Amino acid sequence: MLGLAFTACKSKKEVAQSPYTTDPSTQPKVFSVPTADKTTETVKEEPKVAEKQPVAMRKEQVTFTSQTDKEQNEVNSFFVILGSFSQLDNARNYRETLLNQGFTPIILHSETGYYRVCVNSYQAESDARNRVAQIRQSYPQYSDAWLLIKN
After folding, report:
1. 25: CB partners within 8 A, 6+ apart
2. What pLDDT, on the 0 to 100 scale, is given for residue 84?
3. Would you list the DSSP string of the chain?
4. Which of 45, 68, 86, 142 is most enclosed, with most CB atoms within 10 A?
5. Torsion sign, CA atoms 64, 127, 77, 88
6. Domain coordinates of the chain in residue numbers?
7. Angle, alpha carbons 35-37-39 (nearest 5°)
């Protein structure tokens, strides 16, 4: 009788079923496919063409923070901007960073109170847009370059 008590109380172990689980025996089999020999097939990748992103533009009245910059750029109306800062010291630090990368930045003071760090200025909008595209392609970290139009 003791033997019957232990064997009769045995529970059946079943895998818990849920609508979110699947039976492992019905899982699809995954096979690896050998890779093709690279000597038999060569694939040339097309060079990636930089996508033309729209160039943000903003009209503002600006003053030059340096008399030399004013004399050299006063006739230009389109300025390529890489940075805007509320503090002049931050703009000067950024200017130094850009100088080390080969740019010739100037700092403009906007009517909005921001100091704009400009790397090029032009009389023609098309020249300025071409420079923005060139900067975006050569320096991906400056993909947010934009144009300031002097009022």
Report:
1. none
2. 95
3. -HHHHHHHTPPPP-----TT---GGGSPP----PPPPTTT---PPPPPPPP-PPPPEEEE-EEESSHHHHHHHTT--EEEEEEEESSHHHHHHHHHHHHHTT---EEEEETTSPEEEEEEEESSHHHHHHHHHHHHHH-GGGTT-EEEEE-
4. 142
5. negative
6. 57-150
7. 155
Question: What's the rounded Cα separation, in Å, for the pair 75 and 123?
Answer: 7
- CATH number listed for the domain at residues 57-150: 3.30.70.1070
Average pLDDT for 108-115: 94
pTM over cut 0.70: no
| Mean pLDDT of the residues in the chain | 81
Give me 14's structure tokens: 């079943």
Distance CA 78, CA 130 (A): 12
Count of CB atoms situated within 10 Å of the CB of 21: 9
Residues in the chain: 151
What is the model's pLDDT at position 145?
Answer: 94
The CA–CA distances, whole Å, from 114 to 71, 89, 111, 117 equal 21, 12, 7, 10
